[in-house]
Amino acid sequence: MAGAAAGAALLAAxxxxxSGGRPFSSEPPLRISSGTFSASLDAVLKAxxxxxxxxxxxxxxxxxxxxxxxxxxxxxxxxxxxxxxxFKYLFVTRDLxxxxxxxxxxxxxxxxxxxxxxxxxxxxxxxxxxxxLWESMSAAGVPPALILDYADVFxxxxxxxxxxxxxxxxxxxxxxxxxxxxxxxxxKVTAALYDGGETGRKTAAAHSGGxxxxxxxxxxxxxxxxxxxxxxxxxxxxxxRFHPVLxxxxxxxxxxxxxxxxxxxxxVADGTVSFAGWKGGNGKLVILRHGGGYETTYGHLSRYAxxxxxxxxxxxxxxIAYVGSTGLSSGPHLDFRLKQGGKPLNFLKIKxxxxxxxxxxxxxxVIAAIRALPAE
Length: 376
Ligand SMILES: [Zn+2]
What we know:
By secondary structure, the protein is α+β, with helices and mostly antiparallel strands. It has 3 domains: 2-115, Nuclear Transport Factor 2, Chain: A (Roll), CATH 3.10.450.350; 118-221 and 352-376, Nuclear Transport Factor 2, Chain: A (Roll), CATH 3.10.450; 223-351, Glucose Permease (Domain IIA) (Distorted Sandwich). The chain contains 7 helices and 21 strands. Strands 11, 12, 14, 15, 16, 18, 20 and 21 form an 8-stranded antiparallel β-sheet that branches. A 5-stranded antiparallel β-sheet has the order 1-2-3-4-5, sandwiched between helices. Strands 6-7-8-9-10 form a 5-stranded antiparallel β-sheet, sandwiched between helices. A hairpin with a 3-residue loop joins strand 8 (184-196) and strand 9 (200-207). The longest helix is centred in the N-terminal third of the chain and has 19 residues, at 2-20. The chain is elongated, with a radius of gyration of 27 Å. Mean pLDDT is 87; it is low at 1-6 and 12-25.
């Protein structure tokens, strides 16, 4: 890995030499020593045989553009020894930047900063659910961060915590950028499908910053599919090495999500906190007021998230509280309700208007991306 990084750094150095027309441009380097910062820059240079004075000069020059205390084992270096004399130059690669240090006039060091070349590629995967989305996608080689991105794409239409059933089919295509050492530095879902017994067929393709289904309609809508959000909960449970499959019950004009005490609760829509406090049998309760006369309530909480009090504005997906069992409750669960104009609504049945769409060539591109997804 470090060798590849050093190779790429050398290419960059070559370009710099030749473009600068420096006298040493035609001399090939004799030896490269490279590695990562498992120790400090000073320790690395000492091990490379740099004397005290040179180490001090190198550190001083580098620290003009680079915080040396921030260097981590994922950052790499390459020291290049030339064919003649004690002359040395140095690369440090961090945060997709190459810091190239070389001796200039009168023994001072010059520093150039060049962006690391990122190459892009694409990949795809598909499968059928056995047990959970997380396990099925991991088993097919989908990186964890991308599983969360995939769940985010469908967060307005699929609740991956309660609606996943064995045999459901999924597919996704993604793009990623890799640095010269082969490390993935960016990734993005380009098309996705979820076809489930509970959910029906859901599709998505990326277009100019949003996601659209095969009718060309935006996936984004006023309400998230559930107040327990897959990304938030997965990161909460990942620390405990458990990937949850939750259940919900409908004992009244609302939904009870069975979830362990402490599970994070998210706002399903943009809005304002109209109440956060104890309310009889509801125990600790949060009420959010949204546009269109909608109101959502979250009951039996163990505690509120920081800053949640009446008057506070929240955005869709924001952490507002944690699941508990306060008030009249037989065990930890979230009591979630939706009302409009004071009247209870069935949250799982309401039809949302899509927030917009694409047509013409853009829609054709969206459809083509969805059709190109792999079949299971
Ligand atoms: Zn309840």
